[in-house]
Amino acid sequence: MPKFFPDDDVDELFELVAAGMSLERAAACVGVSRVSAGRWWSGSSPVELRMQDGRHGGLPGSAAAQVPGALGPEDPPRQRRPLTSEDRAVIATGLRQELSHAQIGALIDRDKSVVSREVARNSGPNGSYRGPVAHRAAHERRRRPKSFRLLENPGLCRRIEAWMDDGWSPRLIAQVLKEDSPGVIIGRVSHETI
Q1: d(Cα 150, Cα 193) in Å, to the nearest integer?
Q2: Residue 147, Cβ neighbours under 10 Å: how many?
Q3: How far apart are CA 79 and CA 43, in angstroms?
Q4: Distances (CA, A) of 101 to 82, 105, 134, 138
Q5: b or e along 50-80 (b: 16 or more beta carbons within 10 Å of the residue's beta carbon)?
Q6: Are the C-beta atoms of 112 and 100 separated by less than 8 Å?
Q7: How many Å apart are CA 138 and CA 47, to the nearest integer?
Q8: Is the pLDDT of residue 140 over 70?
Q9: How far apart are CA 66 and CA 43, in angstroms?
Q10: What is the CA radius of gyration of the chain?
Q11: Mind giving me the DSSP string for 43-90?
Q12: Distance separating alpha carbons of residues 35 and 44, to the nearest angstrom
């Protein structure tokens, strides 16, 4: 017969892992075996763990998140307001209390569609939603997968800097680059990037 663990223990384990701790260490802190912690994780997390210091379990990108007291990455400044870790905690609590997506949305001042998409995107295979893990998963999806073109091409960067020093607008530079290298995407940079 499996041993019952309260939701508080499961939540604490997920928060510790989302804060950057390995699954093995988090399991020891909560007082469960690594096998049980692994079952909890694989059954209800949308994020796969990575090896960390030769031990099982760490979230992708969690080395940067090991700031004492922080549960997840900082939200980058954006035009539209992304969900914060606090918003995700309210969503998790609301789901446990069986509130509707509209009711949860009202609590965090967001539309019910935002809550619905968040839950669909960041629920584990068994349908459970954990705020800290969802926050980490969202952060990882936002990361830019490719390197910045101007860092890869210092010659292009110097040309752009010279034109900027001469007073050229970013839009004009982008247009000239496009005309100078038709069909060659690597020699082009958008005016937004400039």
Answers
A1: 9
A2: 8
A3: 35
A4: 17, 6, 16, 19
A5: eebeeebbbbeebeebeeeeebbbebeeeee
A6: yes
A7: 10
A8: yes
A9: 25
A10: 22
A11: HH-SS----BTTBS---TTGGGG--TT--SPPPPP-SS-PPPHHHHHH
A12: 14
CA separation (Å) from 58 to 40, 136, 164? Answer: 14, 11, 43
Residues 21 and 188: their CA atoms lie apart, in Å, by: 42
The predicted-structure confidence for 54-109, as pLDDT tens digits, reads as follows: 455 556 554 434 444 444 444 444 345 788 888 999 999 999 999 999 999 998 98
pLDDT score, position 76: 42
Percentage of residues of the chain with pLDDT beyond 70: 73
Task: Say if residues 85 and 122 touch (Cβ distance below 8 Å).
Answer: no
Asked whether the beta carbons of 72 and 132 are under 8 A apart, the reply is yes
Token reading at 106: 């009202």
| Residue 22 DSSP symbol | -
Cα 149 from Cα 64, distance rounded (Å): 24
The position carrying tokens 């295979």 is 125
Q: Are 132 and 71 in contact (CB under 8 A)?
A: yes
Whose CA is closest to 44, among 98, 125, 121, 134?
125
